Amino acid sequence: METMNIKSSLLCSVVIVWLAVCVDSQSDQSRVFMTARVGSSVVLPCEWKDTLSPSPHIEWRTFTETVFERLGEEHYEGEGYEGRVDVPEDKLKKGNCSLELKNVNAEDAGVYESHLVVNRVKRALSSKRVFVQSVELSVDESPEDRSFQRFVATDDAEINSPRLQIVVFSLFLYLFTLL
């Protein structure tokens, strides 16, 4: 009876870990990882297919602040980003909501998220934010080649593939139940 309880506890633990890994993998599917050197320029990618209005409202944020916001010709540049960020209006109207960040500095490292701000039809006064893209920017402070820029989407990285993790954990779970 005691081995049955231990086996059940272990099985429950494995299932919880399996679910946590799969859910975490799903949340990173749309995150892009990029690195830029101090002083360089970088474009944080963002694109959407459905044009919701002739003048889309885009917002780029970190976890703590608004970095950039554009609605038509009007735009807002967050504190510390003044004169260094833009989402060109002409590109935005075509579905390209990529954030151009110039003169990268060490403090720019972090996770950036883009959202479309959409007015609700039934509630004209209220709006909602629709998540578009997450970009994690690392900043390289070495004084080498200023043209250095790279990015890797997690979808292309085999180890981060949720399908691969599901198969591995399912196999582990199956082997564990055979014990």
UniProtKB/TrEMBL annotation:
Keywords, ordered alphabetically: Cell membrane, Disulfide bond, Glycoprotein, Immunoglobulin domain, Membrane, Receptor, Signal, Transmembrane, Transmembrane helix
Signal peptide residue numbers: 1-25
Example GO biological process: immune response
Alphabetized InterPro entries for the sequence: Ig-like_dom, Ig-like_dom_sf, Ig-like_fold, Ig_V-set, T-cell_Activation_Regulation
UniProt-recorded name of the protein: Ig-like domain-containing protein
GO CC entries: external side of plasma membrane
Predominant location: membrane
Organism of provenance: Astyanax mexicanus
Annotated ranges, domain Ig-like: 39-126
PANTHER family: GALECTIN 17-RELATED, T-LYMPHOCYTE ACTIVATION ANTIGEN
Membrane topology note: Single-pass type I membrane protein
Gene3D superfamilies: Immunoglobulins
Subcellular location: Cell membrane
A Pfam cross-reference name: V-set
